Amino acid sequence: MESLRGFWDVLMSYISTPLLKMGSMQLSIRTFLYLIVFGVLLIYISRKLTALLADRVLAKRNIDIGVRQATATILRYLMIAAGFIIIFQTAGIDLTALNVLAGAVGIGVGFGLQNIANNFISGLIILFERPIKVGDRIEVGDVEGDVIHIKARSTTVVTNDNIAIIIPNSSFVTQNVINWSHTGNNVRFKIPVSVSYDSDVRLVEKLLLEVAAENPDVLRDPAPAVRFLEFGESGLLFELRAWSSSLVHRKGRLISSLNFGIIDKFRAHSIEIPYPQRDIHIRSKA
Fold first, then answer.
1. 230 and 195 part of one domain
2. Is beta strand 187-195 parallel, antiparallel or unpaired with respect to 164-168?
């Protein structure tokens, strides 16, 4: 027992030996262990509490999932910031003595951590302004998918192929972002159609509206419409405009379904879809 107590005293003396001095502040192994242990606990507890807030407390109030996630994330940042201040103070670290270190970190941010700082600030802008939120259908660059998570540095988007793509938050601030569900789930789709010049244009209009009416994913209100756009080089150009709220996340499926219906209707009524045509003039020299 005495040997164990002696070992303990030697260990405590070793880990309490100052390794770094900053003015009147002394940092030892014990201080670093204290910071690591309580820092990990703070991050774990903050994650659990914010998840409880978003999934239990706010969910019972029928609050939109995007609002819940944004509120929980902001509260987590505030909790972690306040918690680390308390941990530093209880560890005996005078935060005013870290001004030099803060200056060095600021220089590091200015040179080597520009992208990280940019993405973090962009994440805060997204959470406050909410141009996108969890559950939205978006397009940014070449990526199209559903937003499933917004973090401090990046946002996770899942495509229709069930592939998760991690996008830096700065992309949503500096690039043009198409948000299909920002103003609601009702979205209008435009399906271009070309028919030959010999076609009955009123019959074409009628058939296109029938295709839209027979599709269960096309809304009746707003009603679908047909537009005669122009006289093209190879045929008459029409456009079927149909609204849907059920296939916003599967727009390719809706367009394909309407195209199948259009080709079936046109073939049943002998409406010709023209091939590209070119007139070739051959000149011979006398």
1. yes
2. unpaired
The whole model's pTM is what?
0.61
- Cα separation, 176 vs 231, in Å, equals 33
Those residues with Cβ within 8 angstroms of residue 181's Cβ, 6 or more apart along the chain or in another chain: 135, 136, 137, 187, 248
Range of the domain at 18: 7-112
Q: If the chain, 286 residues long, is cut into consecutive pieces of 10 residues, what is the mean pLDDT of each piece?
A: 60 63 66 84 87 76 69 81 84 64 61 72 80 87 88 87 91 88 84 92 94 93 93 91 86 91 94 77 66
Residue 274 domain flag: no
Sheet with 154-158, edge to edge strand ranges? 164-168, 154-158, 143-150, 137-140, 177-179
What are the beta bridge partners of residue 25?
22
